[in-house]
Amino acid sequence: MLSKEKRARLHAELPAIYASLAAAALNLVKKRRQPGSATTARDLLHNAIAALLSGDRDWPDGVELFACLIEVMRSLRANQARSDKRQKTEPEPIPERPGVPKRVDVPAGGHEMNHPFWTREREREIRLAAREAAAGNPTALAIVDAALKGAGRGAELAEDTGIDVNEVYEGVRYLKGRLTPIVEGWRRHDEEKD
């Protein structure tokens, strides 16, 4: 439990630094936003204040209130990120497709996606393959989820996921590298049937 004098100090100093703390909380939430996380900047700041008041977090002597609350917010955010990663859900497994190899060597060159094999069933398989390809990579999984919900490219994906644009592009390259062999295998299989 916070001592009476520190509690009085918190109540006296908090109004003057609240706006700066709120801005710092917003920055922390944007910078470390995890897919599926519902924590807002306001929640983070209020949880940090509550943790100090309840004594769950320590306010060391000689440390300014602002610095202490910033560190408490960072700690709470990092703990939540670790918790979110542990509670990650497993993607739906991709159904086996007879005659379609799991790995296919992709020839150099461009890839034509205007092909008659793009049916509703194939689109469903692609969605499942995208979720499986993203498994184990939180950034890629967030990109897939946002794309499946209708997000467009680069900046729109970054805005919808809260992930930095450069990380979004890196995640898209990761997904493309994992999905291209699968799609090419389906395409070859369909061409062989014709």
Describe the structure.
There is one protein chain. This protein is an all-alpha fold and 194 residues long. The protein folds into two domains: 4-86; 120-193. Helices cover 65% and strands 0% of the residues. The protein contains seven helices and no strands. It has helices at residues 4-31, 41-54, 65-86, 120-134, 138-148, 154-161, 165-193. Helix 2 crosses helix 3, helix 4 packs across helix 7 (165-193) and helix 6 (154-161) packs across helix 7. The N and C termini lie far apart (74 Å).
Question: Brief description of this entry?
Answer:
The chain is an all-alpha fold and about 190 residues long. Helices cover about 65% and strands about 0% of the residues.
Please render the helix and strand layout as text.
Elements: H1 4-31, H2 41-54, H3 65-86, H4 120-134, H5 138-148, H6 154-161, H7 165-193
Helix pairs in contact: 1-2, 1-3, 2-3, 4-5, 4-7, 5-6, 6-7
Throw out a few tags for this protein:
single chain, 194 residues, mainly alpha, 2 domains, 7 helices, elongated
**Distance between termini?**
74 Å
Number of helices: 7
Q: What is the helix content?
A: 55-70%
The low-pLDDT segments are 101-117
Query: What number is the mean pLDDT?
Result: 76
Overall geometry comes to elongated
The description of the largest β-sheet is: none
Beta fraction: under 5%
Count of discrete domains:
2
Q: How many β-strands, per DSSP?
A: 0
What structural class results from the helix and strand content? mainly alpha
Q: Any idea what the radius of gyration is? A: 24 Å
Order of helices and strands: HHHHHHH
